Each structure stands twice: as C-alpha cells, then as structure tokens.
Amino acid sequence: MKALVISGGGSKGAFAGGVAQYLIENKKRDYDIFIGTSTGSLLVSHLALKKVSKIKAVYTNVTQDSIFSSCPFLIKRKKGIVTIKINHFNVLRNILRGSKTFGESYHLKELIKQTLTEKEFDILKETGKDVVVTVANLSLNQVEYKSIKDFNYEEFCEWIWVSCNYTPFMTLVKKNGCEYADGGLGSMVPIEEAIKRGATGIDVIILQTEVSQFNRMPSLNAFSLLTNMFSFMLDRIEGQNIRIGKFVASNQNAIIDFYYTPTVLTTNALIFNKEKMTKWWQSGFDYAKHKNTKVSPLEEKQ
C-alpha cells in the first residue's frame, strides 16, 4: 500500500500542493492512504479526488480574511520586512466575549465546506481510499487520527477545520466534552500512523528545510515572541516524528521518500500572501520534478 503524508506548515502548504501535483499528475502515483496535519489536512481530500487544479486555485488565492473571522494580529511591511503586531481591538473583543483564544477561524470552516462539497465527499468515500486528518485532544493529552471512513460530511469537515486550528491564535474547539486543537501540537509528520495503517511505500512532504537554518526574525514584541516559541516547539515535535517514523519504517520494511523545502519559505506561516503562495506552489512542483530526475526509493523497490 502507498501513502502520501503531508506535514503541517500553514501558508507553506502551497509548496506541498506543488510537490503532490507532480507526484500525482506526472509520476502517476496512486495512493491508498492520505494523511495530513494542519495545512496538510486541507490538501489530502482534494488530492485523493485528484482535483489538483481546484485546491491549487484555493491555495493561491487565500487571504487572511479567508481564514480568520477575528484576526489577532496586524501585518506590517517596512523596508521589505514583514512583521506582525497584536491587533489589540480584536484580541480585547475576543476576551470580552469570553473566548479562550486571541483570534477565531470560523471563516476557514466555511471555506472548507465551500471547497469540499458533500457530493465530492460521497464520491471520495466510495473510492475506499483512507483519508485521515490529525488532531490534538488537549483534554486527554493525546493525538487522534480521524478517518473519512468513520464520519459523515459535516463531521469530517469539522475535523479538517480542527486539525488546522493553531491555538491560541485560532479557535479552540470543544467536541464530545474535550478540547481540540491543531494536530501539529502532537504530530506534525504522522509517518508512524501511515505505517500502522498498512503503508509500505510512503511519500512524505515536510514543510521545513532538511538542515536547520536561521529562519526566524528576532522577537520584536510579545506576540512575535509567542509565535517564535510555538514554532520552536513544533520544529522539535517534527524532528521527533521523523526519527520515530524512520525507526518504525526500518522495522516494518517500509520505504520512505522525503520531500523537504529546499530553502526557508517564510518566517511566519500565519501570513497568507497570494503572490508568494503562487510561487511556492510552482517551486514545489519544480523541486519534485528535479528530485525525480533520479530514481526514487519507492521506484527502486518496485
């Protein structure tokens, strides 16, 4: 069985889309399992349907307003440098409303339902492909994997949304008596889960450089410090996921082919810029094409 695993990474998901487009359309990869975390969860349903052009149009046109119903920060551009500052009005309004987070992402929930229709959901279910999204159960202190096979349309769309909610900047969701947030808080790169579900050949798209680089701007305020701290923690989680995935793969005779970003794409993946995301999608496609001029590990196994 073949699996496609896409890590979390916010706006950098555009790069993953480009890589996946090349693998599916040019290399004709036919995956049985699709697993995504956060931004990866937004991609996997459409990739499983092979509706690449549709999800590309979404990713290359998304804006802050497409995601946030209440954006907790302001984007400032000065001398070519992009920084974020607290949107005091929105944050204060959220607090007064009794919200547990600085911002809200209900617009993203609506976008997910507009993009993945109920008819497409039914078609996807009939294919028998296992489409899985990763969520973090904060109440039970565990990572959970939600498969399309186990839910109806409304439920699965909500789990996709939950997987993307990068708290405390986005909505904290309460379901079944538990609080849920972005799956990346526990599993940024769910390679191990793909192997548990029977995958023996796995393409893994990681929205980070393979070698650590200086890729964060100095903290200019409390808000940028908080985002830098979260990014640091997620990087450590990502590294651990990769090491565990490689270990499990070696014990299960599974073959993994990794696709890292060749350069640092952005220092803040919460900023959605149409022009940059369009370039990242194309760079992902070009990178996968260049990488596949050599025989991949999956093809060597065949």
UniProtKB/TrEMBL annotation:
Molecular-function GO term, any one: hydrolase activity
Cited InterPro entries: Acyl_Trfase/lysoPLipase, NTE, PNPLA_dom
Alphabetic keyword roster: Hydrolase, Lipid degradation, Lipid metabolism
Gene3D superfamilies: Cytosolic phospholipase A2 catalytic domain
Pfam families linked: Patatin
Domain annotation PNPLA: ranges: 4-195
Motif GXGXXG boundaries: 8-13
Residue numbers annotated as active site: 38 (nucleophile), 182 (proton acceptor)
PANTHER family: BLR7027 PROTEIN, NEUROPATHY TARGET ESTERASE/SWISS CHEESE D.MELANOGASTER
Record-given protein name: Patatin-like phospholipase family protein
Originating organism: Snuella sedimenti
